Amino acid sequence: MPEQLISINPANGKEVARVAVTTIDELNAAVDRAWQAFYTSGWREMLPHKRARVLYLIADAIEKEKDSLARLQMQDNGKPLGECRGMVDSAIGTFRYYAGVCETLESSVTPSRSDYLSFTVLEPFGVVAAITPWNSPIMNDATKVAPALAAGNAVLLKPSEDSPLLAPELARIAREAGLPEHLLQVVQGRGADIGAALVAHPGVRMVSFTGGTVSGRAIGRAAGEKLIPAALELGGKSPHIVFADADRDPAVAAVVAGIFGSAGQSCVAGSRLFIEAAIYDDVLNQVVERARTIKLGMPDEAGVEMGPLASFHHRDRVMAFVDRARTEGGRILCGGAVPSESAFDKGAFYLPTVIDGLDFESATCQEEAFGPVLVALPFKDEADLIRQANGTAFGLACGIWTESFKRAWRMGRALEAGSVWINTYKQSVTSTPFGGFKNSGVGREKGIDGLKLYAQVKSMYVGLHDQPMAIAK
Ligand code: NAD
Fold it and tell me: CA distances (Å), 307 to each of 80, 256, 261, 332, in order?
């Protein structure tokens, strides 16, 4: 009997489905098939507007199955149904966007310095690996697969062992929509085993990874050893900042949505709340009051604001994180426990939690919980804020609430983050580059350059000389 991954619905603990773990022999065969498809399917030679047509068809086909995909995603990782629908919409939009980029992307004619014409073309790498986490499977899968295919590659997609169900659906839909056979294949299994084997495989020429910083570092090391490029989208501990002059109610609403949306299982979760000292108690009280009223519930319940965490073992990790915050001297202002109502007994639920009283250098304020856990910190002035907010290894995102345009500009430039939101939070669109500073990542996904991640520049020269070339000038 081959080893299997079991998808458990974290809302009720019931088994949803099983998938077979890919063996090393199967991985080798998949890489061979991918190269064969790359060379023989005609995909990479296909004129861009025709390749784009297939990507549009994939988007249409995902749209037709939107509801069932959203429900499967909900069962696989417990996110509220509305959020899961949003993720499927995002995947559809991503395929359409990269179809558009595919047929409109231009390369350049470079300034010639002699009697030749010089220009660039973009070439695919061949076979690329796309490795994704469990928090937003179909959305993250599309963010990698659509531009990689648009660039002419074959893709081996490895979803997380904790959310294995959406990737095979995406591959099936793409094939049925007209993508040549074996251009998108799925590899299943644990990161340290089959994931590492995929990255190390000599037939894989580029790797695109989204996940935690520890895994990202291992993948970056393995890619470096092979001298292949690695795009790494990693974790965060993003500061969400409220100045005294902020428009208070929208700021509080965004702070709460920024951390408790997706039960905090978002790389850009605003997990460190910085409040200007003069308004610290008032804002913190408002945040805690709102956190206490968040509607926890089953992911398909109407009006539910927070579902369970994605798995029972992840819930245990979040519990341990909060327990450590207690030992560090943190004050638990709300949450800090599993809900007491019996309706939640069978699921991986955890209450929205707000902690304060810790130094910004404490482990609680430095490490990613990837759960519904917010730490609050006061700051005296801009210099104190920058010292604390930048005092972390991460640099993925930040939010700034102030009515002063000049301050927003100053802080936005000074904070070390790949995305800065001013008087808003967690906006992310496929047309705008996304990625991290420092330990939050290497490279930028999304946007037009998101396609170029999966392509290599080739420079071409066409001679225009009338005289034979001289050996020495
Ligand atoms: P993870 O790093 O444990 O796993 C992510 C994926 O990588 C999984 O498919 C896993 O099987 C695989 N993997 C793990 N180790 C590997 C290795 N050595 N070689 C090859 N593959 C390996 O992350 P997770 O727990 O699934 O997801 C949570 C993390 O992802 C958080 O840190 C979160 O911040 C991050 N994340 C980042 C972004 C972003 O865009 N920056 C988006 C979502 C999630």
Answer: 6, 15, 9, 21
